[in-house]
Amino acid sequence: MPTRKELPRNPSFELQQELLTRPERNPTHYVAFEDAATHRFVPNATTWSRVNAWWLADAAWIAYNPDANGVRDVFRSRAQMDTCEAFAGSGTECYLAQCPSFAIVTFRGTQPNDWQDLFSDVLLKAVPWDVGHVHQGFGKALEPVWKPLEAALDKLTDRPVWFTGHSLGGALATLAAYRRGSHAAGVYTFGSPRVGNGIFAGHFDSLFVERSTRYVNDHDVVTHVPSEGVAFPRGRYTHVSNLRWINKDGQVGTSEPTVKHFIQDVFGTSRVFLDIINLMQQNVRITPPDALADHTPLYYALHTWNDYAVNGG
Asked: Is the sign of the CA dihedral 185, 33, 298, 312 positive or negative?
């Protein structure tokens, strides 16, 4: 039986700061894809899979590593993928790892100096996209890597291709998966913000049905942005479906958080969180609120592993 892994207990300011804003430093020495040869990915899964969730959470986590060769080594040596190709442009990065039976596309999440991209009122504007309207910053961020990535994916029509990402990476994975349509086996996102308006979300949901899963760790603040009303007059920003919510005890279910409007009710505006992050990066010793700490990439990897270890499947 797989063994549960403990989350950091009472992390110091320094540890929580690195876990949240500099995950690539890996201060806890987490081992991505540990024992992946024993706990294999299910390439042809047509419904939600706990082991696939763990694989894709780990893939989303290692995408933060700025060392492309290091990412390739992890995919090859631990995940036993044959190749891993990097795509980068204008600050956007993603990886395409493949073996004969499946492939994974993972997008890098928010970088230390890019939190403004999530909370900026200017970039929150909803603009026309392939279908409906999407967050201006997210739609723009996908374009620099899309053509070379699409060309590489066109050569892989003989195997399932899965998409993933954490934070901003989750938003980009959602957009990229939609563009691949029926050629995308599925998409799992972790701590993703809202991507587009109701028209976009409706088209996405009808296309993917059971092939998409959106993980939210308790009151993760990033999953509350952009605010629904910011898309006006283009409707409301709307999350895509198939939520898996991780409660404060680490249990995974499909229920909504008990206090749905927690962020707006307590803090009033997401700009408050940007101010907190800026202070943390200036080494001001301020303890991040739970809603911000819940966004930590490593916690998603640990929670999805533990869910698999306890429940299997």
From this structure: positive
pLDDT averaged over the chain? 91
Cβ-proximal residues to 144 (8 Å cutoff; 6+ apart), any chain: 88, 89, 90, 91, 92
* CATH number of domain containing 197: 3.40.50.1820
143: number of Cβ within 10 Å: 12
pLDDT above 70 (res 208) = yes
Domain assignment present for 122: yes
Confidence of residue 265 (pLDDT cuts 50, 70, 90): very low
pTM listed for this prediction = 0.95
The number of helix segments (H) and strand segments (E) in the chain equals 11, 12
Domain tally, the chain: 1
- Measured in residues, the chain has a length of 313
Residue type, 73: D
Torsions phi, psi for 208 (to 5 deg): -100, -25
